Amino acid sequence: MFKTPLQVEAIPPNLWRIISPLVWDDTVGGVMDNGVYIPNPGEFGRLEFPAGLVTDLASIPRILRHHSAFDPGGPSRRAAVGHDDMYATGMAAGKSITRDRADRFLYLALLSEGVSRPVAWMFWAGVRLGGWLPWRDYRIAELEAALEAERRRLLVAQRDIRQPVVPPRIK
Fold it and tell me: What pTM was estimated for this model as a whole?
């Protein structure tokens, strides 16, 4: 369950920056879904989504935005922020996470925010169908950054090897 309110500032035209950490903690208890208890204590533990994170608050197709259940400014906001962070970093609580786990978090977080099970399932189905593309793009960007860092490290090492070795003077 979320332990802190979501505080954001607008970044025109359609993005938001988190201005204080958003905390999730499911170490005690489970999720209530319309009066039905769904046990999941400790499934994700304590998660902190950092200030500075940029999000769109849920990538909802325009055709669905007229329905109040899919309003990006509605109860899906905090769940979407956590999901966006997991997609962007591939991490949760400092550990690598799969796309499937990130999508499960979205589903459970939506239930904890009072979203009905059918609507939470539609959000989940939407990210399962369309989320592979941003997930892939984030992972490619991570690989490219790692390759660039390794290329730079090797250039420095190569430069060091090329420098002449000056033997010490013997007295």
Answer: 0.78
Q: What would the 3-class secondary structure string for the chain be? A: CECCCCCEEEECCCEEEECCCEEEECCCCCEEECCEEECCCCCCCEEEECCCCEECCCCCCHHHCCCHHHCCCCCCHHHHHHHHHHHHHCEECCEECCHHHHHHHHHHHHHHCCCCHHHHHHHHHHHHHHCHHHHHHHHHHHHHHHHHHHHHHHHHHHHHHHCCCCCCCCC
Longest dimension (CA), the chain: 88
Q: How far apart are CA 71 and CA 92, in angstroms?
A: 26
Rounded to whole angstroms, the Cα distance separating 142 from 146 reads: 6
pLDDT on residue 69:
66
| pLDDT confidence tier of residue 70, bands split at 50, 70 and 90 | low
Asked if 76 and 113 count as a contact pair (C-beta separation under 8 A), the reply is yes
Q: Which two tokens stand for residue 138?
A: 């984030």
For 34, the token pair is 């319309």
Residue 47 φ then ψ, to 5°: -120, 140
